């Protein structure tokens, strides 16, 4: 009898846990759209509201606590992202937080310092006049504090690290949490579903960055 009760309790916990997982894709709610105005969204000729989707995603942090995050992405990759993040959740892969960049007034430095994971933001590539893949909702940045963007000044060759508080995480041989490597489940899933990794770039490194190249 005791064994049957234990089995039932385990089954119930698993069932309730499965039901509590949230992985949804919808049109952008009006309340969210209003929040985006003048922050992640600016009028432009390249992408429309109808091209984007609002995702709600269950994820766990380093301490194993479950959260439900929010993300705006291009509708072309919405299902792929839900599949990827569902697999990461099942594996208890840690993602500290997943908030819309509008919470940080679309200030990339601020949200990276907060180790935020996000996708859509209508902006240029850092240090460039060219639009970022984020401007089309086709790139995702994961655990941004621990996986910084590293480039070198064209003027004097000095190293530029973004966020500025992430200099100690530039050394990828060091051991620290949330680090993305080629052996990492995050890397394997994103590349499996048609994304390239900024950590593999030659002239600069964007360890947090996965952008959709299609397939």
TrEMBL record:
Task: Report the domain of life of the source organism.
Answer: Bacteria
Q: Which GO terms describe its molecular function?
A: peptidase activity
Q: Which residues form the Peptidase M15C domain?
A: 127-211
SUPFAM superfamilies noted in UniProt: Hedgehog/DD-peptidase (SSF55166)
Signal sequence residues: 1-20
Sorted keywords for this record are:
Signal
Q: Does the keyword Transmembrane apply?
A: no
Record's protein name: Peptidase M15C domain-containing protein
């Amino acid at each position: 009898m005791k064994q049957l009760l234990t089995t039932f309790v385990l089954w119930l916990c698993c069932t309730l846990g499965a039901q509590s997982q949230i992985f949804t894709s919808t049109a952008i709610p009006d309340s969210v759209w209003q929040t985006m105005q003048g922050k992640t969204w600016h009028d432009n000729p390249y992408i429309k509201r109808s091209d984007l989707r609002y995702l709600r995603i269950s994820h766990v942090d380093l301490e194993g606590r479950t959260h439900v995050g929010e993300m705006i992405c291009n509708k072309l990759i919405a299902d792929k992202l839900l599949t990827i993040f569902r697999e990461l959740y099942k594996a208890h892969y840690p993602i500290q937080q997943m908030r819309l960049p509008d919470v940080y007034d679309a200030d990339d430095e601020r949200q990276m310092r907060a180790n935020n994971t996000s996708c859509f933001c209508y902006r240029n590539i850092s240090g460039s006049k060219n639009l970022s893949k984020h401007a089309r909702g086709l790139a995702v940045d994961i655990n941004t504090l621990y996986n910084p963007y590293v480039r070198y000044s064209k003027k004097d060759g000095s190293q530029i690290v973004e966020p500025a508080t992430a200099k100690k995480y530039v050394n990828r041989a060091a051991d620290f949490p949330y680090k993305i490597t080629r052996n990492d489940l995050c890397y394997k899933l994103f590349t499996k579903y048609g994304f390239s990794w900024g950590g593999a770039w030659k002239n600069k490194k964007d360890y947090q960055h996965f952008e959709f190249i299609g397939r």
